[in-house]
Amino acid sequence: MKNKLAPVFLSLALTGCSMRLMALRTTADLLETGVTAVYEETDVRYAREAMTSHLKLLEALLKNDPKNPKLLFSLTQGFGGYAFLFIEDENPERARYFYLKGRDYGRRLLAIKPEDAPALFWTAYCWAGWAALSLTNPDAIADLPKVEAMVRQAEQLNPGYFYSGADQLLGAYYASRPKMFGGDLAKSKSHFENAVKKTDGKFLMAQVLYAKYHAVAAQDRKHFESLLDGVITAPADVLPEQGLPNQVAREKAKRLLGKIDELF
User: Fold this and answer.
1) For a surface tag, which of 62, 81, 128, 179 has the fewest beta carbons within 10 Å of its beta carbon?
2) CATH for 108
3) Residue 1's pLDDT is what?
4) What range defines the domain where residue 20 resides?
5) DSSP string, the chain
């Protein structure tokens, strides 16, 4: 009798595991949709609180499904965005921590999807964010060529992905590096101009980065002011699906203008 029941119990156990995994993946799909809602939110404080809880829940789900590419992607993008939008300006040390978390999730994702443009871009985004805040760390400097290669690969696979994100990263990269180590203000300007043109000037963070990196490196105060004034005066609904990044861009623009005499 026991031998006859064993296959039944095994079948029930496997069915239970399968149903649990299906439920986890359904939840992951819903949370992925939730990211869209967060990026549409224009109340920065509310979005920050929501994203904090959202990321913790994603990590809990990942423990039960550690190779789920949707969860890994959401965590890579999520921690990169969280560090940049909410933490970097007020606490660089904490931002480094979150960028590293995003990078490490991204590397796990790339082990599953090595030729995926979004995976490459967001892993590079997190890696670049960490490196930019760790310039006294030789390992961070040594990693930059690898990050650049990942960004270029992402751009080749999916040109213009995420509001010409590759152009924004490369523009910052060429403006922030010394000339002897590959810095090039002309290349930086070209990448930023491409980003602004391809997004019709609607993704306001591109102009903020253009001002922060290229205009400061070139010591072009007039262009710095023009870019940031344009961000601050842009219509509130200029790109509704990116309401949160655009609202944060306005706040960053105001802070940068407040430091203009220190920067020029």
Assistant:
1) 179
2) 1.25.40.920
3) 52
4) 2-263
5) -HHHHHHHHHHHHHHHHHHHHHHHHHHHHHHHHHHHHHHH---HHHHHHHHHHHHHHHHHHHHHSTT-HHHHHHHHHHHHHHIIIIITTT-HHHHHHHHHHHHHHHHHHHHH-TT-HHHHHHHHHHHHHHHHT-TT-HHHHHHHHHHHHHHHHHHHHSTTHHHHHHHHHHHHHHHHS-GGGT--HHHHHHHHHHHHHHTTT-STHHHHHIIIIIIHHTT-HHHHHHHHHHHHTS-TTSSGGGHHHHHHHHHHHHHHHHTHHHH-
Which positions ≥6 away from 82 have C-beta within 8 Å?
A: 48, 51, 52, 55, 98
pLDDT along the chain (264 residues), means of 10: 55 57 58 74 95 94 95 97 98 98 99 98 99 93 95 98 98 95 96 98 99 98 99 97 98 98 98
Residue 13 makes CB contacts below 8 A (sequence gap 6+) with none
Tell me the pTM: 0.88
Instruction: Report residue 239 as tokens.
Output: 């790109």
Label residue 91 left, alpha or beta by phi (over 0 means left) and psi (-120 to 50 means alpha). beta
Dihedral over alpha carbons 131, 260, 209, 85 (to 10 degrees): 70
How many CB atoms neighbour CB 150 within 10 A?
Answer: 23
Please give the tally of structural domains in the chain: 1
pLDDT of residue 132: 95
